Write a sequence for this structure.
């Protein structure tokens, strides 16, 4: 492709023409009539931003090598390689990490001596009172956490575990009755032999022999006073008081709401061969734990005046304490063989 070029006005061949100011450009300079302000130099039009003419940006200067140089925004030194390395170490530390700027000293301020520096470092350390208060605070926090865990264990986990154990014992007892593996009235201390139903409170819990916390009550069951001086009658006895004990709080808490029973509410004892139905008659809200007369054959504060077939429920009061005892009494109103089906109190 042939490049564009101006027409030759002389006979000088192309390539032999001098590059001095001549021809059209020279004529233009000679014929220019622009005011140069009294100077002999010709006038040059200003550079247009839209052109691609080379120009020096404002604020820069041309170095000896011809490359523009500008002041560094980051403060990078313009010295040699060694100077740049030293500056980088001062900015970023020996290993490249960002170091905190040193606090500038005034002209009158003298550097600290070693003794003064040690004194200042010692003054910044916490005193014995601060250390002691921190230690006491940590002890209080740890104690609070331990107490919270203990309360959670007592109020929640013991109930979960006791309910599981009681349900397992009730299912095992009913399976033995259905399969005939256990003879009627055959059981040992700590072993379940009956099931207590309180329909109003939605309570269904096994009855075991004895009132031991570890063997009976803490497993979510209710216990029958059947040992030693506190021995009471069984439900199938012709006369007597069938007395039971149970937790009011924690460990399944089967007797937690027996204070809400009113006269006429049914209490049913289910055994391998029969249902014994009692109706609640009276209550004793508070009595001493040593008052064993409440489980006697004819309790003096129950309102009963002669021997009969009674039931007594005992538990602790007030709630979450064992200072006193709450007593509920009932009288048998029906004895129903299992062959005749459930009593009306369990059907409804």
């Amino acid at each position: 492709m042939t490049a564009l070029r101006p027409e030759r006005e002389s006979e000088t061949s192309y390539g032999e023409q001098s590059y001095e100011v001549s021809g059209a450009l020279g004529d233009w300079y000679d014929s220019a009539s622009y005011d140069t302000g009294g100077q002999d130099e010709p006038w040059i039009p200003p550079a247009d931003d839209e052109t691609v003419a080379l120009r020096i940006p404002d604020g820069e200067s041309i170095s000896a090598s011809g490359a523009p140089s500008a002041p560094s925004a980051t403060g990078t030194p313009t010295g040699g390689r060694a100077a740049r390395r030293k500056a980088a170490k001062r900015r970023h530390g020996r290993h490249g990490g960002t170091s905190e700027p040193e606090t500038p000293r005034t002209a009158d301020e003298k550097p600290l001596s070693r003794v003064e520096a040690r004194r200042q470092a010692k003054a910044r350390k916490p005193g014995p009172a601060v250390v002691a208060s921190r230690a006491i605070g940590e002890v209080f926090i740890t104690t609070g956490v331990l107490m919270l865990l203990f309360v959670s264990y007592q109020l929640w986990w013991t109930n979960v575990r006791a309910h599981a154990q009681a349900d397992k014992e009730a299912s095992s007892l009913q399976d033995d009755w259905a399969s005939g593996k256990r003879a009627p009235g055959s059981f040992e201390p700590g072993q379940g032999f009956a099931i207590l139903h309180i329909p109003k409170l939605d309570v269904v819990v096994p009855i075991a022999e004895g009132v031991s916390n570890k063997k009976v009550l803490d497993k979510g069951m209710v216990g029958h006073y059947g040992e030693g001086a506190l021995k009471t009658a069984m439900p199938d006895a012709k006369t007597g008081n069938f007395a039971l004990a149970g937790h009011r709080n924690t460990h399944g808490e089967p007797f937690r709401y027996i204070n809400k029973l009113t006269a006429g509410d049914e209490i049913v004892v289910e055994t391998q061969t029969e249902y014994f139905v009692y109706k609640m008659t009276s209550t004793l809200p508070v009595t001493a734990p040593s008052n064993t007369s409440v489980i006697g054959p004819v309790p003096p504060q129950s309102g009963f005046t002669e021997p009969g077939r009674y039931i007594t429920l005992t538990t602790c009061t007030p709630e979450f304490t064992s200072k006193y005892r709450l007593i509920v009494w009932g009288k048998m109103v029906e004895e129903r063989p299992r062959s005749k089906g459930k009593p009306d109190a369990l059907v409804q």
